[in-house]
Amino acid sequence: RLTFKILADMDAAKERSEWLLDVVVGFLKSPSYTVPVMGFIDEHCIVFDDDDENKFAYTELHEDFKRVVDKLLDDFLEEIGLTPEEFTEACLKGGNSHLERFSLNQILAVDDFLSFKRMMVKRNKELELEVLRHMKRMQDKKGQLVEEEKEEQVSSEETGDEDDDDLQKAIKLSKESFAAEADDSDAALEEAIRLSLETMGEAAAGESSPAVKQAQLLK
């Protein structure tokens, strides 16, 4: 019976420990914690550089960071009824994922100045890298836009040349058509004049014929 009780107590302690870890990690991953904490880190990490000197500004920011985190943790522990000792135990056991380790390291960095400094230096480098990547993407995008504008300009010029060629062809065809119609009109006019003259000649010949005959009779 004693062995059974010991095993039962161990199982219960293990289950509670796992529950504590899940609850703690869940809180550390929630927006109610990450937003104010990461906001503080991102805002102030630019001050930190990777040197051996521990500036006075670092210690001041460390104290401010502790106040922010302590207030968040106190509200959380009071809400779920955990003691600070139970919370510390869950943090020391740590998590398996990168996000869990990062969140738990934030808690451990609260009282450890060197851990706090390492965290701030690391975040500063991450933000610098993000800025460089963003600048590179913007430069690549700008270069792509310039190339697209050049291609559009070349395409527009080629289209303009094609339009000019089509216009010249249309003008040429119009001139040729007009000239052909003019030639046809001149030929028709000449033919009409010729026919008119022939008709007039025949008419004149027809009118003089009786007079000639009468003159011949008088003779």
Strand content bin: under 5%
**Residue windows where pLDDT falls under 50 for at least 5 positions:** 2-11
Q: What is the CATH architecture term of the domain at 2-148? A: Up-down Bundle
Gyration radius (Cα, Å) is 52 Å
> How far apart, in Å, are the first and last alpha carbons?
180 Å
Helix content: over 70%
Q: What is the string of helix and strand elements?
A: HHHHHH
What is the fourth-level CATH superfamily of the domain at 2-148?
A: ADP-ribosylation factor-like 2-binding protein, domain
Mean pLDDT over the full residue set:
75
Structural class: mainly alpha
How many strands? 0
- Dominant shape: rod-shaped
* Biggest sheet statistics: none
CATH structural class of the domain at 2-148: Mainly Alpha
Number of distinct helices: 6
Provide a brief overview of the structure.
With 219 residues, this protein is mainly α. 89% of the residues lie in helices and 0% in strands.
Notable features of this structure?
mainly alpha, Adp-ribosylation factor-like protein 2-binding protein fold, rod-shaped, 219 residues, cell projection, cytoplasm, BART_sf
